[in-house]
Amino acid sequence: MDRTEWARLQCPATSLLLAANPALIPAFLPITANLGYDLHDAMRFMRVCVENLEVYNCGKCEKCIRTMCNAAAAGVSDQLQTLPPVTPDDIRNMPLRRPTAVRYHLENLRHLRELPPEKRRPELEDAIEARLQTYCDATGIPLASLGG
């Protein structure tokens, strides 16, 4: 697989990132235009699951749930056709094995907290905080050392 094909496969996830962070769009426009993807394509075809390859997206692994949180923060959960909307139980039951994954969830938490008051999802914020704290308690890693 060459770099262009790899980028093409990654572009739907990039489109979701851009939906959550419109300020990044100018930097990515030339890339996404050259690859021929748009946000509509991302919502229809995004595949992120790397742990359960027998299904398109399992909706239960850390990466699927992280993406579902991204979609909630971007306000596009209802448009994402390849994953269900995230629930607090999904987050609380999410497998979390790596400190690097904690950083991604801290970023999701920050994006959720930055939403306008009418779009906030405090139940998701609380679930992310609780899951990260459980991980830190179990591993002995202070949340502050991971950026929290």
Question: What this model shows, in words?
Answer:
This protein has 148 residues and is mostly helical. It is built from seven helices and no strands. Helix 1 crosses helix 4 (62-74) and helix 6 (99-113) runs antiparallel to helix 7 (122-139). The longest helix is centred in the N-terminal third of the chain and has 18 residues, at 3-20. It is globular.
Biggest sheet: strands, sense, closure?
none
Number of helices: 7
Distance between the termini: 37 Å
- SSE order: HHHHHHH
Structural class: mainly alpha
Secondary structure: helix percent: 55-70%
- In total, the number of strands is 0
Q: What is the percentage of strand-forming residues?
A: under 5%
Highlighted features:
148 residues; mainly alpha; globular
Quick take:
The protein is mostly helical. The protein has helices spanning 3-20, 25-35, 39-45, 62-74, 88-92, 99-113, 122-139.
Topology:
Layout: H1 3-20, H2 25-35, H3 39-45, H4 62-74, H5 88-92, H6 99-113, H7 122-139
